[in-house]
Write a structure and sequence with these properties.
heterotrimer, A mainly alpha (110), B mainly alpha (140), C mainly alpha (179), A: 110 residues, 79% helix, B: mainly alpha
């Protein structure tokens, strides 16, 4: 394997790891906002690592340019959708769960 | 609808790109994956994004319902009209070979027109459905 | 390997749709199942179908279903009772369909009947007769132009029907307000 392929494999592997961590966080976090945090952060970095790994795999081709465009698109859309979700939830009255205010038991999952 | 600063700025940035991508899908359908159905749906998705972010009144000002209704019928009319044009040119219904002097050029022209009709109808109908649901929701 | 995994995901999503108590969740899961189907189509090298499924199934129909839920109040609770006769009918129907697949020719074999009829003509002659590189577009818009005309009329008629059913509501309300 050439060094480029090793780097690409490392990027893809860490992206997959972040995806799994995001999934676990989505499942285990106590309330909406913390879940959104888990989903939103990994949504951004995980996909960025994936796209970077794929771009390295393809080298300097048209596919890499398309991947870069997809990356730019995701950098705009995924934080925005995250913000829209959190903003709407807060505006409609959902308050963040706090350990000291409600005891240590997380609220029941929806 | 309340003003959402981040949403409206990102939407203003995204909507032209989505519309451009819809046009690319529409006219690149001969060469790669794509065509009227997908392009119409993507076009409608951009309009629905505008509808969700800026509210019904602003979108209605940009694309009035009356124009959409005409466009929905016009797309089917274009499709059927290409068939009738082929009939008048001496061929079978929807046989594009006779539309131009060269059969292959005729096929190109026919496919382009037909896909345009499909895209027009699909985009208009999807947008009309979104309008209808949106209005209904505000009254319910 | 990955197609079996995706089919497994598809089955899990379908069960999750059936088991979800919330209509919004069901709509989002339906969009997810469309996305998985699009991935499956892409694995089968059907880029056009995958594109359509992703754009129509996962994109716009999810959006329109959510708008429809916005119009009617989303329901939260559903009876959790298992309808045994319906389950029996569904199992019987699915079993018969699965039994029917036993008589199908082997998957993707080159001498299947479906590959003997007109597919070869389309694949070989499209470049000469139509002159577009994408055979799917040539079949859709030219060879099978009548079918596509039917499809577009169906889309138009469906939109017309929805508008006739709910599109006039606002007008009447405005008239009521004016009185």
């Amino acid at each position: 394997m050439s060094p480029m392929e090793v780097i690409a494999a490392v990027l893809l592997g860490s992206g997959a790891l972040l995806g799994v961590i995001g999934g676990i966080g989505l499942h285990r976090m106590p309330d909406f906002y913390t879940r959104l945090h888990a989903a939103g952060v990994t949504d951004t970095l995980c996909s960025a690592l994936f796209l970077a790994g794929l771009a390295l795999h393809f080298g300097a081709t048209l596919a890499s340019v398309k991947l870069a465009l997809i990356f730019m698109f995701l950098m705009f859309t995924s934080p925005t959708s995250c913000h829209a979700l959190a903003n709407t939830a807060f505006a409609s009255g959902l308050r963040p769960w706090q350990a000291d205010s409600k005891g240590s038991t997380p609220p029941s999952t929806p | 609808m309340k003003s959402h600063l981040i949403l409206s700025i990102v939407a203003k940035f995204l909507i032209p790109l989505v519309l451009l991508f819809a046009l690319y899908v529409q006219f690149h359908g001969d060469f790669g994956p794509g065509g009227g159905f997908q392009a119409g749906v993507i076009f409608a998705a951009a309009v629905i994004l505008h509808l969700l972010v800026f509210g019904h009144a602003a979108t209605e000002r940009a694309i009035p319902t009356s124009i959409l209704k005409v466009c929905a019928a016009l797309g089917v009319l274009i499709y059927g009209g290409v068939g009738v044009a082929a009939l008048l040119a001496g061929g079978n219904y929807l046989d594009y070979n006779v539309l131009a002097s060269d059969p292959v050029a005729g096929q190109h022209l026919g496919i382009l027109l037909v896909e345009a009709g499909v895209g027009l109808t699909v985009a208009s109908v999807m947008t009309l459905l979104a309008y209808a649901f949106q209005q209904r929701g505000h009254n319910a | 390997m990955i197609d079996i995994l995706l089919l497994l995901f598809l089955a899990i999503t379908a069960i999750a749709i059936v088991r979800s108590r919330d209509t919004v969740t069901a709509v989002m899961l339906a969009g997810l199942s469309s996305l998985i189907s699009a991935c499956l189509f892409l694995l089968l090298d059907a880029a056009d179908v995958a594109f359509t499924e992703a754009a129509v199934g996962a994109g716009i129909s999810t959006l329109l279903m959510l708008s429809a839920l916005h119009a009617v109040a989303p329901t939260k609770t559903r009876p959790r009772k298992v309808a045994w006769p319906a389950l029996a009918v569904a199992l019987l129907c699915g079993g018969l369909l699965a039994y029917g697949t036993l008589d199908l020719p082997p998957f993707a074999a080159p001498d299947n009947p479906v590959h003997q009829h007109v597919a070869n003509h389309y694949l070989e002659q499209t470049n000469k007769e139509i002159g577009v590189p994408n055979v799917v577009t040539a079949v859709l818009a030219s060879y099978r132009g009548f079918d596509t005309l039917g499809e577009i009329v169906v889309v138009f008629t469906a939109g017309l029907a929805v508008l006739l059913l709910i599109g006039r509501r606002r007008q009447e309300d405005q008239d009521d307000d004016a009185k």
